[in-house]
Write a structure and sequence with these properties.
The complex is a heterodimer of chains A (212) and B (458). Chain A has 212 residues and is α/β, with parallel strands linked by helices. Chain A has nine helices and five strands. Chain A folds into two domains: 80 residues, Methionine synthase domain (Methyltransferase, Methionine Synthase (B12-binding Domains), Chain A, domain 1, Orthogonal Bundle), CATH 1.10.1240; 122 residues, Rossmann fold (3-Layer(aba) Sandwich), CATH 3.40.50. With 458 residues, chain B is an alpha/beta fold. The chains are: A alpha/beta (212), B alpha/beta (458). Chains A and B meet through α4 and α7 of A and α2 of B.
Chain lengths: 212, 458
């Protein structure tokens, strides 16, 4: 098994240690990391489909994503040094103010990360101003707000209002989601997009960035 | 239980330190995978209601091992709350097997039920969804008109004085008070002033909950209160505040946990183990008097699919065979009011629950997503199916056959949006009663469900 195959197997198995080892072997062997990264992205796409079909579950998906992240930590300095780094975009993500639930947001984060986005996860119960301050700090392209409770849905609307009041609304695309939410509500509050699943969130983020 | 309660609070501050990510990935996920493998727990899609007591016992043993090994994580202090096996055994032994709830002619027994018990299930009714302010009074009153209602959680308020409810904001306190007052008022108008409330779902925060504790106009000391469990095996200071308040009040505190099929617990096996273990979290961390379980499917947010009925049945059997805890099983359905599918889903969930030793909480339609989409009539249907199953002495084997027949009527439609009609179109809002065409559907669907083997009582 060559080092690229070893890396793919390690990611599929969710083995962070072996994935990092294989990535280092690839660098040491003088292989351009863009080739294994393309294969990794395809492998993650397949795993994502299996997750969507409930052939695998969240633990397998998370472990694979962590293994891929371990490999990317080895590849990224090399890509940056060579000017070949290709992050799709930066997304600031968090649960709405007052919302203590994270699993849906964490799934979206995992899938967006493996699709090539740089995701800055602010965690749960994120205050409206913190979404905006972090977006400014990391020069985000997209702000994502997750709500699991009907009573925390107004928090997403508050992010949009404060962006407008600060004159920053056109600077960011804002996407919303969460169990009690739907597209009609997202339209009503003026969000740029809504998705009902993690895989749709990737399509949505891609579409919004292409349209910029 | 107060001494144990304060022990738990102390551990929530002083237990072993760990980051949340590490807790989930390095503690929770590998341990649940290990216990499922160690105890040889296997999901069988042909058996939505398994008759295998040994399987239920293995799920219980796995849940105990998971709970004692992993502990419960406090998100605010980053500390893990651990208990010893002896402490757990003591609490399981000491826990009452029944509570007398409500008062006067609304007094009922809310208690333990064995697997295949002939004891009537305790039925709590609630759509678990928000309603418009102007429909709230009518919808609450409509629920109190249900004859098989033993307790109520009631609709939730989506707005207060024309403003959207916002968690952790003064509007939440106003909405929570409005909710409690309306519930109390409508209970009296319906002639059931002392029904057991589990309330108020409108309030998310600890402050919101504490603000409605009032024996005159609000939630009385002996009513039911809920304390959530954050995914997975987590709590936080706010939930602990609620637990302490409820225990000091003398309330009947229920833990409100929903293990996620496809989530950190993995497939059906891990989800059933986790849902079982949540009963131990409630008992040990919150001092809970009951557990109100709503395991749900990651994609749909519901628990009426084939794998979900298996989870509902097996965790119920696991707890009922190995403890005398008071438990309740909450239905989350895919379809909406004025569809036959919602009746089928509610009946399947109710039968799987009560034959497996659980009580019933029914039901949240439309994947718990749509404002105003819920009526008491689907709760009536599920309650009648539950009572019928118990009165006819339905065994798990028979329940399995019935559930398979019911699943054949709806499981291929689960991925399809089938949301029916909102309360104001399904009900006469002034009279608080179902419209004739809805009642007609109710009776026609009863005939269909009767053919699957359910001997309705009337």
């Amino acid at each position: 098994m060559d080092s690229v195959e070893k890396l793919l197997q390690a990611v599929t198995d969710g083995d962070e240690t072996v994935a990092a080892e294989a990535a280092q072997e690839i660098i040491d062997g003088g292989i351009d990391p863009r080739e294994p990264i393309a294969k990794l992205t395809e492998a993650m796409r397949i795993l994502g489909k299996q997750f969507e079909d409930f052939d695998i579950f969240l633990p397998e998906m998370i472990m694979a994503a962590d293994a891929m992240t371990a490999a990317m930590r080895i590849f990224e300095p090399v890509l940056l040094a060579s000017g070949k780094s290709e992050k799709k975009g930066v997304i600031v993500l968090g649960s709405a103010p007052g919302d203590m639930h994270e699993i849906g947001k964490n799934i979206v984060k995992t899938v967006l990360t493996t699709a090539g986005f740089h995701v800055v996860d602010l965690g749960k119960n994120v205050q409206v101003m913190d979404f905006i301050n972090k977006a400014e700090e990391v020069r985000a392209d997209i702000i994502g707000v997750s709500s699991l409770m009907t009573t925390t849905m107004p928090g997403a609307s508050d992010v949009l209002k404060l962006l407008s009041d600060k004159g920053l609304r056109d600077k960011y695309k804002v996407i919303v989601g969460g169990a009690p939410t739907n597209g009609e509500w997202a339209n009503r509050i003026g969000a740029d997009g809504w998705s009902g699943s993690a895989s749709d969130a990737v399509l949505l983020a891609n579409r919004l960035l292409e349209a910029r | 239980m107060a001494v144990r309660l304060w022990d738990a609070m102390e551990r929530a501050q002083t237990g072993p330190y760990m980051e949340a990510d590490h807790f989930i990935k390095k503690q929770f996920m590998p341990t649940i995978k290990n216990v499922v493998k160690k105890y040889g727990i296997k999901y069988d899609r042909t058996q939505p209601v398994p008759s295998d007591g040994d399987l239920a016992d293995k799920i219980w043993q796995a849940a105990v091992e998971l709970f004692l090994t992993v502990g419960i994580y406090n998100q605010d202090t980053h500390r893990i709350i651990h208990f010893s096996e002896a402490e757990l055994k003591e609490a399981l032994y000491a826990a009452p097997s029944e509570y007398i709830v409500g008062a006067n002619h609304d007094q009922r027994r809310f208690g333990y039920r064995a697997v295949e018990s002939r004891t009537r299930p305790f039925v709590i009714m609630s759509p678990d969804i928000t309603y418009d302010e102007e429909l709230f009074f009518s919808s609450c009153l409509a629920y109190f008109k249900e004859p098989l209602l033993d307790g109520i959680c009631s609709p939730l308020l989506g707005n207060f004085m024309g403003r959207p409810m916002t968690a952790h904001f003064p509007l939440e306190l106003g909405g929570a008070m409005h909710h409690a007052m309306t519930l109390r008022e409508t209970a009296r108008l319906a002639g059931r002033p002392d029904v057991f409330f589990v309330a108020v779902g409108t309030a998310e925060s600890d402050v919101g909950q504490i603000s409605v504790s009032n024996d005159q106009w609000g939630i009385r000391a002996g009513d039911g209160r809920l304390c959530g469990a954050i995914t997975e095996f987590m709590t936080n200071n706010e939930l602990l505040n609620k637990a302490v308040h409820y225990q000091q009040m003398g309330s009947h505190c229920g833990i409100l946990p929903g293990a996620i099929y496809g989530g950190y617990a993995g497939g059906a096996e891990g989800t059933s183990v986790l849902q079982t273990a949540y009963h131990l979290q409630g008992l040990m961390v919150y001092g809970a008097q009951f557990t109100q379980s709503f395991p749900f499917h990651l994609q749909y947010g519901t628990n009426t699919g084939r794998e979900m009925l298996w989870i509902v049945s097996t965790f119920s059997q696991a707890v009922a065979r190995n403890s005398h805890l008071v438990i309740c099983s909450n239905c989350f359905a895919n379809a909406g009011p004025m569809t036959d599918m919602l009746f089928y889903e509610g009946a399947a969930h109710a039968i799987a629950s009560v034959v497996s030793g659980n009580n019933l909480w029914t039901c949240a339609p439309c994947r718990n997503k749509l404002h105003n989409y819920g009526t008491p009539l689907e709760a009536r249907f599920a309650a009648e199916a539950a009572h019928a199953a118990v009165e006819q002495g339905m065994t798990r084997k028979e329940a399995n056959e019935v559930c398979n027949r019911l699943l054949a009527l709806y499981e291929d439609k689960i991925p399809i949006d089938n949301y029916g009609k909102p309360y104001q179109e399904a009900y006469d809002v002034l009279k608080c009663e179902p419209r004739p065409e809805f009642l007609d559907l109710f009776y026609r669907t009863k005939e269909t469900v009767a053919k699957t083997g359910v001997k309705f009582l009337y």
